[in-house]
Amino acid sequence: MRRNDRSVNGSESDSDDDDNEVESHVASPSETQDVTTRWRNFAGFWLLGLCNNFAYVIMLSAAHDILSQQQAGTNTTLPTAQPTVLNGTDWELPSIAADNSFNTSRYDCNPVSTAAILLADILPTLVIKFSAPFFIHLIPYSIRVLLCSLTAAGSFIIVSFSTGIWMSILGVVFASVSSGLGELSFLGLSSFFHSSVISGWSSGTGGAGILGRLVLGLTQVGLSPKHPAGDAARTVLMMISYFGVLVHPPSLPGWSRKRAPPQTDREARRPLLDEEDHQEDITYTETLGLKEKVFIVRGLLKYMIPLAVVYFAEYFINQGLFELLYFPKSNLKHSAQYRWYQTLYQLGVFISRSSVNCLQIKKIWILAALQCVNALVLFLAVYYQFFPSIFIVFAFILYEGLLGGASYVNTFNNISRESSDSLREFSLGAACVSDTLGISLSGALAIPLHDYLCRLP
């Protein structure tokens, strides 16, 4: 029984309230779920996270190779680079005129920052996440999953048969739409299940990074066929995960949305409950007005702002500094160093996004502060070039991934546990704009910073 629904009549004592609360707890659907159902739902969300983030990871992990290929194609003084294979396809980006001012730089720079790839992949997602929380409730989850699957399949098909740069860009936009809509929808979907599925989703998104690095490694040694069948299989897997693996609770709307019963004013003004651990399934979803949604977002800022800061610092490192953290005396080529940076980062993310059942963190701002310090140290290392060994950078990047993954999973775990039942779905969907906003701002900053650093003698 909900606290704000308790009777306050004098004929009912506090002990009666306690008894009623115990009876409600015993009758909670989540308490009666068997172990098989719990594991199926955990596995379903893990697979959804894996499928949703895979293409996004592939694109960013190979950003340096893509730009190197374009530079090699326009500068005849450089050796010809082999095409980078992404998702079974030879990707082509616009030709970039060689800028001689980069040739005398202290850094081994591409004319264009890898942040350009980041912005192309993240801006459509940002638009979706900013706008969708205010109307997405009108679209049932079954339709959303189909849209995610179709846009993902469309991106694979467009890129596979692309005959020009604009077709390739259109394919990237389709992939971004699929990823953004998927994250917003699946986080909201988790509100209808036991809170443990949050860790399954987060771990799956971290697993996408590991799988993406593995696939890129296979393509570089010629073991991955140039065929979109593998990408189509991931699209089908997303649909199987939702329609076949998940055990849908009765409260989950099917092909149409059901209007929720009216909510008390007091309940509408409580976006987060104080330190309460909610484990029960949702029984209905509240229809909220614009004012209520704005009020809820204000209550979520204590988590959204630190998460945005974490991702701003994180992607400032990834897309602004990774390329410039180059050690000429290392046995690894520049492209190989960049790939190792991405691999270690994804490993750290996977470990920490899978750790919430072992370690839960309430104060996300601490992680944000640590990530900012990490970004500052690595920026100084790029500017003054004082790191004597690449292995020191490896340690910092693994640490960066651990901080970023911990921030993500703990933010949504805290929101899921602290939100009142009828507001949890909207809260989770609205909060997911934070990481995308931080990533977009970091990409916008990283491009001019890259140009400045690459012109230093």
UniProtKB/TrEMBL annotation:
GO terms under biological process: lysosome organization; regulation of intracellular pH
Membrane topology type: Multi-pass membrane protein
Keyword terms of this UniProt record: Lysosome, Membrane, Transmembrane, Transmembrane helix, Transport
Membrane spanning residue stretches: 138-159, 300-317, 364-384, 390-409
Segments for region (Disordered): 1-33
Database matches in SUPFAM superfamilies: MFS general substrate transporter
Subcellular location: Endomembrane system; Lysosome membrane
Signal peptide as annotated in the record: none
Gene Ontology cellular-component annotations: endomembrane system; lysosomal membrane
Keyword set includes Protease: no
Alphabetical list of InterPro entries matching this protein: Battenin_disease_Cln3 (IPR003492), Battenin_disease_Cln3_subgr (IPR018460), MFS_trans_sf (IPR036259)
Domain of life, per lineage: Eukaryota
The keyword Transport belongs to this UniProt entry's keyword annotation: yes
Primary localisation category: membrane
Coiled-coil regions, chain positions: none
Family statement drawn from the similarity comment of this UniProt entry: Belongs to the battenin family.
UniProt-recorded name of the protein: Battenin
